[in-house]
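Researcher: We plan to redesign the surface later, but first we want a full-length starting point. Tokens attached.
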């Protein structure tokens, strides 16, 4: 039986597996240190350089005069954001309406940034959206209940959702053997590393961010001197900081041991599979999630996008397929080492995709589906929240330390505005320390942070005393 870890996370592995997304890293960011020496002091230190850290730095840069240093244990964006599945899709029917609306705001926030600045990151909003595919009757019935509940509680959100159960429509979706499906027209795909790299480069080049790669943080210590500052202790020296933002997700408990068991590192598997010829000539019109199923051959927690096909049709079009955690040792729970892949999970990704997705639409073709060749296989460390909700805000009992993480494998439609909220808290605290009057807001005209995401001592105590969220132990859970 899978078990939770009883000790804090380790530092990120210095020799991680080779992610497809990192195969052509930014020459500007590779080995980047904005200053040869580690700064001795800063207004704000951000630990972590993925999507959370990058967006937090972006929003902090909107306030003139702040000195912001970002420290990263490895290369920039070398963690979960540089290793994920390339999806950006809000969960609209699986979550509470306030969470769904927040995720939708995140989705639109990212879309606006990319389109406004013409960021080259293979971003594509799909006109037909995404397809949640169900391989068991029980899971599909539960999904239908959730959709009906949304139709009753929030028709505006429900307009984006369609339940599919007739065989002809399932075949049109290339999932003829599925019990049923739910499609959602709000979904996008992208190259996540390129988005984050653009943000970091744009800030560094105008001297709004000092980035220090290959600088792991060993500990945080309260500085007894004036200003109630924190010492951010690294293997290259110490930075005295007024505020510290942890964008560390699955590794959070390394610096905050009290989050051991609250944000749990879980290793996931990803692959870049060479597409069958039919899908180079006729690329997928949806992204996919494959959920549940009783057959041990099925990937119970699969997620898929297809990269753009080269204009000549001779290359590209990789099937970016992840999941298979149900086949991993201890289901990947408590694993914070991404220097290796789980071989059984990786093998099931290669052999299992065409059992789910049938390009011909003929269900019989899945019986003799050939394995696909992997161009890259890699792993990444996610941060799963014990109660299923991210942890966002100031850490109780540690004034000046802020956290946004624990996205439970769903960071792309949560991180950007969670980071913005944390940046608001930091800026408000800085104004207060200077005698200014700033109202700390959880919302503005564009978003409201869900109450369930807020960090508090009461929430920490409550969640520590309750059973872990079922998704931790059941990778195929909706």
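Model: Full-length starting sequence:
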């Amino acid at each position: 039986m899978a078990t939770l870890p009883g000790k804090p996370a380790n530092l990120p592995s210095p020799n991680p597996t080779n992610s497809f997304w990192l195969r052509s890293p930014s020459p500007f960011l590779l080995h980047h240190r904005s200053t040869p020496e580690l700064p001795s002091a800063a207004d704000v230190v951000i630990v972590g350089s993925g999507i959370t850290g990058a967006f937090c730095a972006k929003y902090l840069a909107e306030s003139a005069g702040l000195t912001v240093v970002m420290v990263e244990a490895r290369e920039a964006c070398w963690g979960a954001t540089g290793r994920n599945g390339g999806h950006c899709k809000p969960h609209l029917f699986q979550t509470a309406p306030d969470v769904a609306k927040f995720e939708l705001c995140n989705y639109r926030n990212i879309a606006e940034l990319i389109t406004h600045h013409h960021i080259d990151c293979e971003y594509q909003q799909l006109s037909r959206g995404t397809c949640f595919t169900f391989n068991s009757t029980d899971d599909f019935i539960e999904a239908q209940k959730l959709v009906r509940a949304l139709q009753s509680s929030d028709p505006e959100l429900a307009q984006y959702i369609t339940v599919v159960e007739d065989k002809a429509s399932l075949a049109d979706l290339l999932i003829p053997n599925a019990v049923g499906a739910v499609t959602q027209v709000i979904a996008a795909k992208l190259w996540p590393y390129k988005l984050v790299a653009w943000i970091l480069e744009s800030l560094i080049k105008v001297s709004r961010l000092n980035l220090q790669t290959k600088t792991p943080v060993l500990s945080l210590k309260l500085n007894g001197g004036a200003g109630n500052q924190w010492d951010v202790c690294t293997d290259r020296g110490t930075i005295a900081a007024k505020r510290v933002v942890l964008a560390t997700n699955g590794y959070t408990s390394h610096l905050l041991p009290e989050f051991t068991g609250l944000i749990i590192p879980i290793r996931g598997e990803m692959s870049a599979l060479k597409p069958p010829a039919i899908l180079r000539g006729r690329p997928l019109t949806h992204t996919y999630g494959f959920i549940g199923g009783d057959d041990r051959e099925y990937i119970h927690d699969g997620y898929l996008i297809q990269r753009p096909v080269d204009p000549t049709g001779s290359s590209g079009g990789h099937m970016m397929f992840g999941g298979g955690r149900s086949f991993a040792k201890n289901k990947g729970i408590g694993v914070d080492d991404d220097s290796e892949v789980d071989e059984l999970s990786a093998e099931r990704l290669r052999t299992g995709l065409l059992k789910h997705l049938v390009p011909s639409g003929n269900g019989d073709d899945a019986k003799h589906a050939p394995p696909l060749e992997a161009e890259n296989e890699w792993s990444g460390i996610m941060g799963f929240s014990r109660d299923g909700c991210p942890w966002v805000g100031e850490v109780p009992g540690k004034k000046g330390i802020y956290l946004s993480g624990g996205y439970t494998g769903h960071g792309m439609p949560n991180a950007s505005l969670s980071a913005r909220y944390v940046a608001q808290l930091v800026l408000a605290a800085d104004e207060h320390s200077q005698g200014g009057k700033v109202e700390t807001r959880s919302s503005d005209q564009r978003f409201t942070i869900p109450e369930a995401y807020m960090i508090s001592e009461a929430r920490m105590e409550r969640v520590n005393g309750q059973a872990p969220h079922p998704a931790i132990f059941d990778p195929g859970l909706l």
